[in-house]
Amino acid sequence: MTARRLRATLAGALAAALVLAGCGGGTDDPAAGRNGGGPVTVFAAASLTESFTRLGEDFEAAHPGTTVTFNFAGSSALATQITQGAPADVFAAASPATMQTVTDAGDAAGTPSVLVRNQLVVAVPKGNPGRIAGLADLVRPGVKVALCAEQVPCGAAARTALDAAGVRLTPVTLEQDVKGALAKLRLGEVDAALVYRTDVRAAAADLAAVEFPESARAVNDYPIVVLRGGGNPDGARAFVDFVRSDAGLAVLTAAGFQAPSGS
Amino acid sequence: MTPVARRQRVPVALLVPAGLGLLFLVLPLVGLLVRAPWTTLPRRLTEPGVLTALRLSLETASAATLLCVALGVPLAWLLARVRFPGRRLVRALVTVPLVLPPVVGGVALLLVFGRRGLLGSWLDDAFGVTLPFTTAGVVLAEAFVAMPFLVIAVEGALRAADPRYEEAAATLGAGRWTTFTRVTLPLVAPGVAAGAVLCWARALGEFGATITFAGNYPGRTQTMPLAVYLALETDPQAAIVLSLILLVVSVAILAGLRDRWVGTS
Residue-wise over A9-48: b if at least 16 C-beta within 10 A, else e? Predict the structure, then answer.
C-alpha cells in the first residue's frame, strides 16, 4: 500500500513539475520578446574570456530573463564553426582577418565595428626570474619561448612584431591559441610567451608583463558583429550595444584592452 | 549453395543495425572525399611541410607502439597470469588513459615529466634531459594514450589461450621465462599483433596529449593531427587534404600488415 501511494505521489509530483515547466516556458517567451531578452549565444575570441564572462553577467543582471551563453575559442576556429552553420547570435573576433571570413561568407547581419584593440607583451613568471627586458632577450641561449601559431591572430601579431624588431626567434612551440601559450608558461615549461596584455593581467597572480616598443606595430583590432544565423537578433543587438557602452568599455579597458582609435 | 543459404539466414534485426553502424562510420569519410579539393591535391601533396609532418607521425607512432609492446605485453601477462592483491585495481588503472580526456593526460604528463615535474626536474638536473617540446615527448604522449589498447587486447588473448600448453611446458621442466617466450608468446602472437595495430592507429591519431605535452613545432613535434588542426584555422581545404593523406597512408599500412602478419580471415 505505502509503496503504491509513494509511487502515486511521485507520479503526481512529476506531472505537476511538467505542468509548471510548461507554464514557465509559456509565460517566459512573450516577456522575452518584449524586452529583447531570451537566450543570446556569443562566439568570442579566447582572449575575451574573462572580460566577456563578466560582461555577460552584467548584461543578464540588466536584462532579467536573458541568458548569455559563450563559446570561447581561437577566432579562426570560431569563424569556421560560424561559416559551417553554428547557431550563434554574436561574433567577436581577435582580428579583422578572421572576421572577414565570416562577412565574406555572408553570415554577418550588418558591418562589423571595432570593439577594442589589444597589444602583445612578453609574459614572464612573476618577478621575471629570467630578467627579460625585451624581444632581444628572447633569443638568449637557454631561453624557451612559446608563441601562437601564425594561423591564429596572436601568432600573426607576434610574427609582425618580431619582424619589426629584426629578431630571429626559434620558439619551442607554436600553440593553437593564446591560452595554450599561456598554459605552457604557467606550468613552467617555457620562460616566456608572446601573448596579449589582457591575458597577463588576467593571470597577474602568477605572471608579469614586459612591454616592448615593437608591439605598437602589431596591434590587433577586435571586431564585433551581429550574425544572421542566430535565433535572437534583438538580443544580439542589445548585447553588442551593451559591450560597446561606456560601462562595457570600462570593463574591457580594466582588463587591459585599449579603446578603439578614433573614439 | 552453402554461402547463399547462410546469407539468407542473416536476421534482419542484426542486418539493419549492422548496416546503420557501418554507414555511421563511413559517412564522415564520404564527406571528406566529397569536399576534397581534388584539383589542387597533387600540389598540396608535394608541399615539404606535409611530408615532414607525415614522416614524423609515422615514426613517432611506430616508436610509441614499440614502447607499448615492450612494456604492455609483460603488464598484460602479469594481469592475466599472476594472482596478486589489488589486481582488479591495477586493471582499472590501466584503463585510466582511455577515459581521461587526452588534454588532461598531457597536463598530467607535464606535471610528472615536465621541466618542473616530479620526475622531469630530476631528469633535467641529473642528465640535462627535458622531454616537453621534443620528439621523444611526442612518443611519450602517444604511448600514454595508446598503451591501454595493447594491454587490453593482449590480456584478452592471454585469457582466451589454453593454459594447458603452459602447464605442459612447466611439467617438462621449463621455467616461467622460458614458458613465456617459447609457449605463451607464440600462442598469443595474433593478439599481440592486433593490439599493436590498435595501439599504432591510436598513436597516429593522437592530438590532445601531444599538443599539451610536446607542443607544436614543425619537424620536431608537429604530427599530422596537429598540422590538420592548425590548417583548419585558416585553410579548411588544406585540412581535408592532410586528413585524407593520413587516412590513406594509415589504411594502406594497416591493410598491408594485416595480410602479412595476422592473415586474412
Answer: eeeeeeeeeeeeeeeeeeeeeeebeeebbbebbbbbbbbb
